[in-house]
Amino acid sequence: MSEFELQVAALPRWRQRAALRVLNFFGWKVLFRPLPGPRGICVIYPHTSNWDFPIGLLGKWAMDQPFRFLAKDSLFKSPLGPWFRWLGGEPVQRGAPQGTIKAQAERMNAANFYWVGITPEGTRAYRPNWKSGFYHLAMEAKVPLVLVFMDYPSKTLSLVDHIHLTGDQEADMAAIRTVLEGHQGLHPENAAPIILAERRAEPRG
């Protein structure tokens, strides 16, 4: 058993114990290490199934952490909008990504506690790379990452690995790959390679 594995008997609140019991009933274990600060980004990978959301939500309750998540603003205009907000959701307008990143960074740094979960693949279907929004947001807000994986073969939800970005995209992504590569979602064929959609242009000589 890992030193980071949550145990029902050690959890102080009934909702934590109930959430972990549900996960344990289905064979899942949760690994959690204290967060590296009051603000940051949980980078969640792989994301290949609708089941990722309820597993992540139960994990959030088991850890008793008020994690937030970003979702397209149209979801919050539906009758389910108040429910998504109660779960910790926040709407994102996709029309102006740079403005959104700056505004989100300001919102994060204005809060006493603000951890947000982001799935950099952006979709459950296969895509050839990650979206880079999480990277730019972490750099803009100057916050650390927690690398989160849901490994279905071992039924492990892990929030143990922390990383501070350096601004060197190649080195940073290599560090992220070291932690996340090899963990499989429910549909591993749909997992995106751990590379950013954009790369910095090579300097011209």
Tag the structure with descriptive keywords:
seven-stranded mixed beta sheet, 32% helix, alpha/beta, 205 residues, 6 helices, disordered C terminus, 7 strands
Structure description:
The chain is α/β, with parallel strands linked by helices and 205 residues long. It has one domain. The protein has a seven-stranded mixed beta sheet, sandwiched between helices. The longest helix is centred in the middle third of the chain and has 14 residues. The protein is globular and about 45 Å long.
Query: Radius of gyration from the CA trace?
Result: 17 Å
SSE class: alpha/beta
**What profile does the largest beta sheet have?**
7 strands, mixed
Number of strands: 7
Count every helix, treating DSSP H or I runs of 4 or more residues as helices.
6
Share of residues in strands: 15-25%
Shape: globular
Structurally, the number of domains stands at 1
Distance between the termini: 54 Å
Mean pLDDT: 91
Helix/strand order, N-terminal first: HEEHEHEHEHEEH
Helix percentage range = 25-40%
| Widest sheet: strand ordering | 1-7-6-2-5-3-4
Low-confidence parts lasting 5 or more residues at pLDDT below 50? 200-205
Question: Strands, helices and their partners?
Answer:
Blueprint: H1 14-25, E1 29-32, E2 39-45, H2 52-63, E3 68-72, H3 81-87, E4 89-92, H4 97-110, E5 114-118, H5 133-141, E6 145-151, E7 156-163, H6 169-180
